[in-house]
Specification:
The protein is mainly α. About 35% of the residues lie in helices and about 0% in strands. It is built from 4 helices and no strands. The longest helix is centred in the first third of the chain and has 10 residues, at about 20-30.
Length: about 80
Amino acid sequence: MVWTLELASYLDDAPWPANKAELIDYATRTGSPQEVIENLRDLEETDEPYESIEEIWLDYPTKEDFFYDDEEKDF
């Protein structure tokens, strides 16, 4: 299972929380690329729904990952 920001973006408007079947259905109905659907099929079957993309892709970048402090520049 390989996620990229582009692939994960197809799940931005997914009906969170959602289980694996609901996410696959959503991705199929919205015309997501086959890679997204394959990644979702690779998910573990659980009784609990996934609350967000962060539960699916543990390394999902957050806003803090894009924060850059200009004062820390080395010239």
